[in-house]
Amino acid sequence: MEGGSNSKMKEKKDRQKGQNPNIEPFVPKKGHDPRELKSWAKRTGFVSTTFSSETERANSLSRRDFTSGRDLNVRNDNTGFDLERGVVNKTETVSPKIELDPILGRARNRGVEIEPVLGEGLGNGTRRENLGRRIEVEPILRVHNEERKDGLNENGNGNNSANGAVNGNGHIETRKDDDNVDEEVGYPDGEDPSYGGWHKSPPLKCGLRENPGLVPLMYYGLQHYLSLAGSLIFIPLIIVPTMGGSDKDTANVVSTMLLVSGLTTILHSYFGTRLPLVQGSSFVYLAPALVIMNSEEYRNLADHKFRYIMRELQGAIIVGSIFQSFLGYSGLMSLLLRFINPVVVAPTVAAVGLAFFSYGFPQAGSCVEISLPQILLVLIFTLYLRGVSVFGHRVFRIYAVPVSVVIIWAYAFFLTTGGAYNFKGCSADIPASNILIDACRKHADTMRHCRTDVSNAMRTAAWVRIPYPFQWGIPTFRLRTSIIMVIVSLVASIDSIGSYHSAAILINLKPPTPGIVSRGIGLEGFCSVLAGLWGTGTGSTTLTENVHTINATKVASRRAVQLGAAFLILFSFIGKIGAILASIPQALAAAVLCFIWALIVALGLSTLQYTQNASSRNIIIVGVSLFFGLSIPAYFQQYAPEIGLILPGYLIPYAAASNGPVHTGNAQFNFAMNALLSLNMVVTLLVAFVLDNTVPGSRQERGVYIWSKAEDIMTDPSSLLDYSLPSRVARCFHWAKCVGT
């Protein structure tokens, strides 16, 4: 009898085996070998490794018996799962009761969407899901709304998001979080972190729509702008003296830049992409501005040189900005986005910083006793002391530039008052052309670059001054300079596109739609028109350093940026603030700019993380683009060597417009072509754009930007809610589908 019973049970098991899928059992090992986990996941089709018997500490989930319809409930140990972090919480208890598809490894009775964690708009064309949604199979069936909001800000973004996640049946690696807890990090099928298939955003202190209160907002806002101080205030210290302006003119231009930056930032936060990105005078416009102001007709101009050059810059900026605004609001930028990828953006942004290598240290070297300590100090702060916290804040990483400037400025003040730059019979107030003694001429140059009391801006600037449009006169419009700024505005747009995408990743948002990107570019064009009307000397665009600032401060609050912009507007009305900033010694300003330009190069090249870095195609395209982006302009810049007898050495690269090799029957065309081909960023963009869009390569290899689709708004309106215009404005532009309203 016993033998017959065993025989019947064996036959019954064989029949059930034929009906049920054959799932290979997995016996966990104490070592938690990632290779073992991955191979088992591949054989079983399991998509999640953060629960079940994948690891020794995971729970046993209830599985339905397909032949009898009974639930086989298996008790689990006293461990819980933190779905936001993807790790086990040993202090919680879970009573899982979930139905699993044994083939797909997915829960049938799930209450929320269960999807693999994928990269955002990168690699194989997938995008990261909003962190406000559950991303793994949830073993707790009855989850209250309050529990789902743990670790989320009011925007639904996971500020306490996981430092690691296990996902798909792809690669698994181990990483350590801030608490030195090993966590397993997985990547989707066929994706490798080396080319950006997976991007983990850092946790944020303050999310996009969070309102921590007035005092924290004031602190975060001022912090954001202080970290960008170098980009906001140092451009006037370069262009105004080159244009022949006085110290008072420098102070007025600084105040004007503060006002325009505040206004345009607020406009962008309401009517642009609505990302927390500061708008300001971009270095993209600095090189073409130097080219225009060093043209032959202005070299020997003595009377009102500053006003003449400023008016021509204003006219050129207005024309180029109108083109940029048309490019955005017409929807043409949405079409152009198909051809703009990280392989194009990376060398172009890097070339913006590399364009000033011949200007940076030659200017800083005029007073090495100030510039060298400044460069060393800012490097020590940003590299060696970046992890040091003071009262819970990483001061040296966030405030590296302003803190180092204050220290070295005080050091220069003590050198000045101590008589280090006192030379008998020499005065810094006398123009170099009027000094007859050679020794005094050399000493006068040293005093102008090193002394802290050379500038008379504090004595001449008014306490209260409100910048106004056309304060330098009616703009001058010329075809030659307008052509230059039209092309430069296109470069500025491409620079901003990369910033939009990187900022969205850092803030844990879905990428914007092409229409939203077009809307942002269109508004940047309008903001540059304002910069042209007020007369800042350069256009207004999204500062590339925004990405570094958000990453360093971990603050992405829109309200903080708006409040900081309001402070900028207030400061612009106090003339003495502009005068104080205008009094920074030139060598000190040049030393700070050396670091900022190097940072722009690094930020540009970091865009390559979204591509396959090991691809020979990408390596060659980027290398060729950068080489010819430096070499071709050098040919134009050195075409007329006699220019060195007229201009200082650091300005020679910007004098090619009037003395370049292009000679046709049209002088205006000659000027524009010589100027454009002498600009590193323009040549780099042209070479990279042509090569990237003609050389064969997969979308994954090229790291093609994947933007959200307009249909996403219809299927899930909340997914792109953070980019939505204010309701009243959205009604007015409801018809404008091309700008993502």
TrEMBL record:
Membrane topology: Multi-pass membrane protein
Pfam name, any one: Xan_ur_permease
Region entry Disordered, spans: 1-54, 147-181
Spans traversing the lipid bilayer: 217-239, 251-271, 316-337, 343-362, 374-392, 398-415, 560-581, 587-606, 618-636, 671-691
GO cellular component: membrane
InterPro entries membership: NCS2 (IPR006043)
Entry's localization field: Membrane
Keywords for this protein: Membrane, Transmembrane, Transmembrane helix
MF (Gene Ontology): transmembrane transporter activity
Isomerase among keywords: no
Major subcellular site: membrane
Composition bias type Basic and acidic residues, residue spans: 8-17, 30-39
Keyword Membrane among record annotations: yes
Biased composition (Low complexity): 153-170
Protein family (similarity comment): Belongs to the nucleobase:cation symporter-2 (NCS2) (TC 2.A.40) family.
Protein name: Nucleobase-ascorbate transporter 11
Species of provenance: Nicotiana sylvestris
Lineage, highest ranks first: Eukaryota, Viridiplantae, Streptophyta, Embryophyta, Tracheophyta
